[in-house]
Amino acid sequence: MIDFEEYQSIKALLSEPEKLADYLDYLHMQTVKQTSSKRHTLAEVKQACGILQALQGITLEQMDEAIKERGGSL
Questions:
Q1: Where are the domains of the chain?
Q2: 35 near 41, Cβ under 8 Å?
Q3: Residue 71 contacts by C-beta under 8 Å, 6 or more apart in sequence?
Q4: How far is CA 26 from the centre of its chain?
Q5: What pTM did the predictor assign?
Q6: pLDDT tens-digit profile of 8-43?
């Protein structure tokens, strides 16, 4: 038996596909976190994704050239 408020919460969750999708994503992330002890820094993630951080004073053209050198486009 579950509490009525919990029942209403579950019912609302299941009746809205967007909320359900968000909840399932959350559950998946929790599962992944439990199975993997490796954590990555933001810098590592940006590097793996090919994201460049613009330096102060860099022009848009310089940024575009750096992105093109990595096979991307601005």
A1: 4-35, 40-74
A2: no
A3: none
A4: 11
A5: 0.40
A6: 988 888 888 888 899 899 999 899 888 877 888 888
